[in-house]
């Protein structure tokens, strides 16, 4: 499964769940810092940080993020945080 976290609080929760479940987590650039991404990735979390923010993104930007997820994780169920 893939979890797309939009806000920092949801990103931390998704990462916590990924540690327990092995889920894949994707976040916007405004959800975690590059240093946090590196630290979590080094600890084994399958975590990707988009190069653009998602917290106040338009529906078109979120749709683009979902297309990218589908390209990299075809057939996976994707859970999206709804803010």
Chain-wise SSE layout:
Blueprint: E1 2-5, H1 8-21, E2 24-27, H2 34-42, E3 46-49, H3 59-72, E4 78-80
Parallel strand pairs: 1-2, 1-4, 2-3
Walk me through what this model shows:
With about 80 residues, the chain is an alpha/beta fold. The chain has a single domain, classed as Rossmann fold (3-Layer(aba) Sandwich). Helices cover about 45% and strands about 20% of the residues. It contains three helices and four strands. A four-stranded parallel beta sheet has the order 3-2-1-4. The chain is globular, with a radius of gyration of 12 Å. It starts with a strand and ends with a strand.
- The proportion of strand residues reads 15-25%
According to CATH, what is the topology? Rossmann fold
How much is the average pLDDT? 95
Cα(first) to Cα(last) distance is 20 Å
